[in-house]
Amino acid sequence: MSEVRRKVILVDDIKFGLQMGKQKLQEIYEVYPAISATRMFAILENVRPDVILLDINMPGCCGYEAIKQLKADPRFTDIPVIFVTSRSDEDSVVEGISLGAADHIVKPFSVAYLQERIENLLNPQHGQKLEQEESSLHAKNANKPCVLAVDDVPYMLRSIQYALRHRFNVYTLSRPEKIEEFLRQMKVTPELFLLDFNMPEMDGYDLFLKIREFPEHKQTPIIFLTSDGTMDNVTVAINLGAVDFVVKPFSSSVLREKVAKHIYKEEYFV
Questions:
Q1: Which residue ranges of the chain lie beneath pLDDT 50?
Q2: How far apart are CA 94 and CA 252, in angstroms?
Q3: pTM for the full model?
Q4: Main-chain phi, psi angles of 216, to 5 degrees
Q5: Are 117 and 82 in contact (CB under 8 A)?
Q6: Bridge partner list, 25
Q7: 164: enclosing H helix or E strand
Q8: Which one, 11, 82, 106, 217, has least CB within 10 Å?
């Protein structure tokens, strides 16, 4: 009995790149090439892929707009998306992850490298990685300040980790209702909190108050993350006592600058 091959939708607006990509991948996967995001959505009406390989720079509907549409559609939201692009700057990586991408691969790449990244993503143990990081409560690097990020969206936590990884020890919590237990078990003390404002189990307002119940965190800076930067939300955040807010999706440089500013108590440009 032949082995069932994984299905891959490959999206690239450059015909030569699309042909080469299909040629390289079809020995390993069942490949469905798409010259545009529009064509990708047409294929999705009949094919349920294991993963979508998506270019960013495309005319009409770019990769960022395409992934927004994918994540907004209940039929497609769980399909992993890997950006395969020539864009290697950090802001592009962070923006892609913050929009829901599972990975970011820079062209050119080897087939073996791409296959490894795909298989790591689709391996059932991959989904445990964030939880393992989340439960790692011991100090990482004593020379780096500690930041605790709380967000119920795992890919948002990954984007925060990626953006801050060089300057700070970033701990993550995807279940805000466990904040008390998490803080009591931590072997280090967070010097700043990044809190999503809208979460189902415990919203940012209740989470803020719960953190302030800890004597050591009465004055710890708290920055809210929000996808809605309206004046009402900003006013609520400031009235609560938050030192700042960041609108999602965010720029990695803006996030680093705001975090550093409130930890080091001075303007800090990164």
A1: 1, 126-135, 268-270
A2: 6
A3: 0.67
A4: -75, -10
A5: yes
A6: none
A7: helix 154-164
A8: 106
